[in-house]
Amino acid sequence: MRTILVRILVVFQDYEIDRRCIRCGKNTMVTDDSTGERFCGVCGFVINEKVEDSGPERHSFSKEEHENRTRTGVPMSLAMHDMGLATIIGYDNKDATGKPLSASMKSTITRLRTWDSRSQAHGSQERNFRQAFSELDRMKDKLALPYSVVEKTAYIYRKALEKNLARGRSITGLIAAAMYLACRDTGTPRTLNEIARQVNVKRKDVSRCYRLLLKELDLTMPVLDPIKCMSRISSQAGLSEKVKRLALTILEDANEKEITAGKDPMGFAASALYLSCVINNDGTTQKVIAMAAGVTEVTIRNRYKGLRGLLDIKVPPKLNKTNILQV
DNA sequence: TAAGATAAGAGGGACAT
DNA sequence: ATGTCAGTCTTATCTTA
Fold first, then answer.
1. A235 and A177 in a common domain
2. Most buried residue, A61, A149, A197, A226, by CB count within 10 Å?
């Protein structure tokens, strides 16, 4: 019984110390759970750093972790104009002690909230970020971009703005270029055409921004891996594993013979797949693969010719629908 | 209807001026 | 900075099987 009492006392003391305001000394510090900020209910003093969410950590992967879940802080993202660090006026109309506000106070707070949020995006750069990142947010679902690419895009975009590259260029063009860069850098196979179409900017403009970023930010991009392109095309066109495997060996062979330089990797992957289809008598048309790869049939034909010639691949004679040799 | 052939045009890199 | 050139890719159209 005694130990229990002592424990309660200790907890109570901790609680008391925790609530003491640094400015006015009163035990009136409270935490706003929705924003994670700590402030004094009497003098209004707000603790500078964001305090950690008092709730448990959201993820736990084992029993021990579940029992010992600690908070690691509010998630921070480069893809927000303020990186998620701004202080805002809360939305539940309650005062420091948790009581609801009076009607007149409520309207005052609403007005304050409006001006507070307006003042958040001050300066052209902030406004630029807002617009760019809302565009990015919209795009990431359309293009099925992973989180890492989104963060990378935001990082590149911030760098670009730091270097004053935005002046005289469209925000959407620049963010699209940053997105394409991030895709290239992380090996996510997305074509310039796809991105340009989604953001509704001409491919030419995105491409121009892309090269500008490449030059100004001193970046070097690895060439898109045709093998990665291939798996994307084959899944989009619904090709079989067998076709894919053969196409893979064709690509590797082509790589060895160094006939891939300067050619569009998507076109190459597409034609390797087509060649594989022909050899396997798969019956998939150039059109289907061209659509899946985002290149034209003519490009496939050109690469196809080159592949066949240089790799000396024997194409079996055409079989008709009943698998009888046509002479 | 799919595939092949051909031509015109766009955009960009390399190089010279 | 500007112009030229070879090479690539796209679009469009016609022909062939």
1. no
2. A226
- Per-residue pLDDT reduced to its tens digit, A183-194: 888 878 888 888
| Spacing of A214 CA from B14 C1' in Å | 18
A234, part of any domain = yes
pTM above 0.70, yes or no: no
Strands (E), A33-158: 37-40
Q: Is the CB of A302 under 7 A from strand C?
A: yes
Tell me how far apart the alpha carbons of residues A287 and A318 are, in angstroms, rounded to a whole number: 18
Question: Which protein residue lies nearest to nucleotide C12, measured between its Cα and the C1' atom?
Answer: A298
| CATH (domain of A292) | 1.10.472.10
- Count of structural domains, chain A: 2
**Domain extent for A141:** 124-216
Answer for the pair A281, A289: CB distance below 8 angstroms, yes or no.
Answer: no
**Cβ of A190 less than 7 A from strand C:** no
- Convert the pLDDT of each residue in A101-127 to its tens digit: 888 888 888 888 888 776 665 677 788
The tokens for A53 are 């969410």
